[in-house]
């Protein structure tokens, strides 16, 4: 039978009583010190989880003279991560700040959010990290409760409505999507589609809602969405499906650069001229957008600077400062050769 949490503030004494050990044993377990068996350690952790108790993060930080390691877990396939320009730039921005503090990044790929929860708990309890950067928030993200109860110092990358009270850094994707749609509509496009990420992914949901809302405001209907997993193969498949449809779009907005490049290849394969027959608009504006022919129009933002700002905010959290969530610069339109008025 699980032990109910006592009324009022839970203390280390309550955890010790629930686990049937001394307060010293609880301290040894949470500080990853010898003196308790692995079975006892797990029993202590289980009791702490039931009671919603975690060591005071400020007190723990006093035991260290400096920040040594920051954690980042990514729920992405390794192959996709290697091809994804966004995360390469984002991580380079984080590293630029960590280098100033002589601090390391502990990067791990995970297969699910549940796996990430287990990983973050182990990192924190074994003192492998001083804090973590949390990315790719979902609606009602399952990581929030366990990691807040753990006392993990962390910064969320996402809109504050998604990050559950963790200080966050984000881009105003809704405003950027509206700008993209209004630009294409001003060129004369009336059939505009969007190739985006999974609907339960927080920033994809924000972009999808902004896309539909702006299309409705312009009297163009809701527009078409195709959900993908962000890869080039998925971008190509989505583009092919849209172009084979009976009422094919004259413009497509993509959620990242690699899918837009793949879409450009599909258009060429199918004999669809870009931009005369089809306009394409990418997102992030990596070097890929300037290496294609025609060059890709994009919603451009400083991804390296985004990562650097996230790291700076985490260091403020670790220093015990009061930190509020903040946006970075909104992505802005960079017109190039892949967008033009549609043919009559």
UniProtKB/TrEMBL annotation:
<dbReference type="Pfam" id="PF00356">
    <property type="entry name" value="LacI"/>
</dbReference>
<dbReference type="InterPro" id="IPR000843">
    <property type="entry name" value="HTH_LacI"/>
</dbReference>
<dbReference type="InterPro" id="IPR046335">
    <property type="entry name" value="LacI/GalR-like_sensor"/>
</dbReference>
<feature type="domain" description="HTH lacI-type">
    <location>
        <begin position="10"/>
        <end position="64"/>
    </location>
</feature>
<keyword id="KW-0805">Transcription regulation</keyword>
<dbReference type="GO" id="GO:0003677">
    <property type="term" value="F:DNA binding"/>
</dbReference>
<protein>
    <submittedName>
        <fullName>LacI family DNA-binding transcriptional regulator</fullName>
    </submittedName>
</protein>
<dbReference type="Pfam" id="PF13377">
    <property type="entry name" value="Peripla_BP_3"/>
</dbReference>
<keyword id="KW-0238">DNA-binding</keyword>
<keyword id="KW-0804">Transcription</keyword>
<dbReference type="InterPro" id="IPR028082">
    <property type="entry name" value="Peripla_BP_I"/>
</dbReference>
<dbReference type="InterPro" id="IPR010982">
    <property type="entry name" value="Lambda_DNA-bd_dom_sf"/>
</dbReference>
């Amino acid at each position: 039978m699980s032990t109910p949490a006592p009324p009022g503030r839970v203390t280390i004494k309550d955890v010790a009583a629930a686990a049937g050990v001394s307060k010293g044993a609880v301290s040894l377990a949470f500080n990853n010190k010898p003196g308790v068996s692995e079975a006892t350690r797990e029993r202590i952790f289980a009791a702490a989880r039931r009671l919603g108790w975690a060591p005071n993060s400020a007190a723990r930080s006093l035991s260290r003279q400096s920040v040594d390691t920051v954690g980042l877990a990514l729920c992405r396939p390794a192959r996709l991560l290697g091809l994804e320009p966004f995360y390469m730039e984002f991580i380079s921005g984080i590293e630029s700040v960590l280098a100033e503090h002589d601090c390391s990044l502990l990067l791990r790929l995970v297969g699910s959010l549940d796996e990430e929860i287990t990983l973050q708990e182990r990192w924190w309890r074994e003192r492998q990290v001083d804090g973590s950067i949390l990315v790719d928030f979902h609606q009602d993200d399952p990581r929030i409760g366990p990691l807040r109860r753990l006392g993990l110092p962390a910064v969320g990358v996402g809109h504050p409505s998604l990050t559950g009270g963790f200080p966050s850094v984000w881009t105003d994707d809704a405003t950027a999507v509206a700008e993209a749609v209004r630009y294409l509509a001003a060129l004369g496009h009336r059939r505009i589609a969007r190739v985006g990420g999974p609907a339960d992914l927080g920033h994809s949901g924000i972009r999808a809602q902004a896309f539909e809302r702006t299309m409705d405001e312009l009297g163009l209907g809701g527009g078409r969405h195709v959900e993908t997993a962000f890869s080039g193969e998925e971008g190509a498949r989505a583009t092919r499906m849209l172009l084979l449809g009976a009422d094919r779009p004259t413009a497509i907005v993509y959620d990242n650069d690699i899918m837009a490049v793949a879409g450009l290849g599909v258009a060429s394969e199918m004999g669809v001229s870009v931009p005369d027959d089809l306009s394409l608009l990418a997102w992030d504006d990596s070097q890929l957008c300037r290496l294609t022919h025609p060059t890709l129009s994009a919603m451009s933002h400083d991804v390296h600077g985004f990562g650097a700002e996230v790291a700076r905010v985490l260091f403020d959290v670790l220093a015990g400062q009061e930190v509020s969530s903040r946006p970075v610069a909104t992505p802005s339109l960079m017109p190039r050769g892949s967008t033009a008025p549609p043919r009559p």
